[in-house]
Amino acid sequence: MIKTELFTKNLCRESSYLLGFIWADGYLSTLKNKYTISIEIKTEDMKIIEPIMNFVGNWSNYTRKRKHNWSSVTRKYTYNKELWTYLSLKGYQDK
After folding, report:
1. Mind giving me the DSSP string for 5-68?
2. What pLDDT is attached to residue 95?
3. DSSP 8-class letter at 69
4. Residue 51, exposed/middle/buried by CB under 10 A (0-12, 13-18, 19+)?
5. Is 78 exposed, middle or buried (CB count within 10 Å of its CB: 0-12, 13-18, 19+)?
6. pTM of this prediction?
7. Range 4-8, long-range pairs (CB < 8 A, 24+ positions)
8. Euclidean distance between CA atoms 43 and 57, whole angstroms
């Protein structure tokens, strides 16, 4: 569960950093009433920001290789309608 209030009411260093990261490398999506917030980057880079993401709550993850000789990428995502709506109202969906 993501601590939504860290993004909407009680900003801290970690949530502020992640707001910027979501703006740059993240995306919002909806499918079957699941409001998803995702970030997908190279797995080695994800390992660096993973402690920051864990500070604000629990994220699911999925790691894959797009092509055989490419680096692997990891997608961290969460289902959170309240945070999704907040980010959408701030323009994160339309960026």
Report:
1. HHHHTS--HHHHHHHHHHHHHEEEEEETTEEEEEEEEEHHHHHHHHHHHHHHB--EEEEEESST
2. 77
3. T
4. exposed
5. buried
6. 0.89
7. 4/80, 4/82, 4/83, 4/86, 6/56, 7/56, 7/83, 7/86, 7/87, 8/82, 8/83, 8/86
8. 19
CA–CA–CA angle 86, 14, 21 (5° rounding) = 65
Q: What is the mean pLDDT of residues 49-55?
A: 96
78: DSSP letter: E
CA distance 2 to 39: 14
CB 56 within 8 A of CB 14: yes
Q: Is 60 left (phi over 0), alpha (psi -120 to 50) or beta?
A: beta
Residue 42 carries which side chain, given as an amino acid letter? Answer: K
